[in-house]
Amino acid sequence: LERFMHGLWTSIFTPGANSQLLLAMNVSFVALFLSLLFLLLATGGNGHVFALLFIAMGLFASVQWFVRELAAVRAANEADTPPPPTTTTTTTTSDDADGEEKKVH
């Protein structure tokens, strides 16, 4: 639990979403759904609570869709990224009268 909380705390200060943040978000949504379902039963099917439950389900679905699309884009970018170029040095040779630089590998 301590490692999870530490990972969650550090994820606040780093860009992107990691597994601790996604888990905490999903647990929060489950708690929200359970609360709204309890309220729906306790109020005898109140329309306002039903509307809130519907909005929460839409928010959950859209957040999950966004997280999956973001992961797919990151995976595609990592697969398409070429390896880093080899180091090249530029030197000016003394026999160049016009002072052009030539790359030497």
UniProtKB/TrEMBL annotation:
The Gene Ontology biological process terms listed for this entry are:
vacuolar proton-transporting V-type ATPase complex assembly
Membrane-spanning residues = 21-42, 48-67
Transmembrane as a keyword of this entry, yes or no, is yes
A single GO cellular-component term on record:
endoplasmic reticulum membrane
What ranges does the record give for the region Disordered, renumbered to this chain? 77-105
Under Pfam families, the record lists: Pkr1
Lineage: superkingdom:
Eukaryota
Ordered alphabetically, the record's keywords are: Membrane, Transmembrane, Transmembrane helix
Q: What InterPro entries does the entry give?
A: Pkr1 (IPR013945)
Write down what this protein is called. ER protein Pkr1-domain-containing protein
Organism, scientific name? Syncephalis pseudoplumigaleata
Lineage of origin: Eukaryota, Fungi, Fungi incertae sedis, Zoopagomycota, Zoopagomycotina
